Amino acid sequence: MTDTLLAGLPGFDPGWVWLVGAGPGDPGLLTLHGVNALRQADVVVYDALVDSRILEHAPKSAEMIYAGKRGGRPSPTQRSITLRLIELAQAGKRVLRLKGGDPFVFGRGGEEALALTEAGIPFRIVPGITAGIGGLAYAGIPATHRDTNSSVTFITGHSVTGEVPDNLNWQALATGAPVIVLYMAVKHMGRIAAKLIDGGRNPDDLVAFVSNAATAKMRVVECRLSDAGETAKDVEAPAVIAIGPVVGLRASLDWMGRMNDGRVLVSPDTAQDAAE
Prior knowledge:
Blueprint: H1 2-6, E1 17-21, H2 32-40, E2 43-46, H3 52-55, E3 63-66, H4 78-90, E4 95-99, H5 109-118, E5 123-126, H6 131-138, E6 153-156, H7 170-176, E7 180-183, H8 189-198, E8 206-211, E9 219-224, H9 228-232, E10 239-243, H10 250-253, H11 255-259, H12 268-275
């Protein structure tokens, strides 16, 4: 069946780099293009958030290179990863750069692609399902809903320096985005919540932390924006964070909770709001 599904998909030529998104966690969310790339790769340079079962699609002969970058832990630099991709491609390898989520959504895929362009290395982009959409969906939270929001804003929770981004108009974000989705923001959630509230955001806005989204370890915690900094202290990274009225829909849309005969954590007041 797999060979039939992959029939007609592009060949992976030597000397090329494919930047592939693996999705937010569940191996079933990997695209057919992603499977096709894995099955042809000579080298797989993969991130920390890629499920090990996804790597099993690669040939046993493929070289597996871990390039995980986790906050607060020893990690390879972005420059060293990029240089390795170039060196491997110049050696005539089929190089697969495998990233969690989507390589072009806070995944540094753009940086790597620009470096490959400068080095004259041909590449292909294979999009993946980003955690800000797929991870929230597994938690029963739609990124958009006709009755609540016609727009959504995606924000990274830290800048290149690792601090809260200082080049954002927090007032505009606080008042102009009905729904905000934050990546990599657990560490700085207290400061981010304060900036949003100072910018005019309702401190009673609903917030959901989706930790280890779309995996067997997924855990969802809800709170108010005013309590988000304190709540974040008990949240395990990685987590994607949703702020806004769509969080209230989760009480009806928590399909994973129903499948598992259990409920993930919801504070009593937010549950009451959803019921009303």
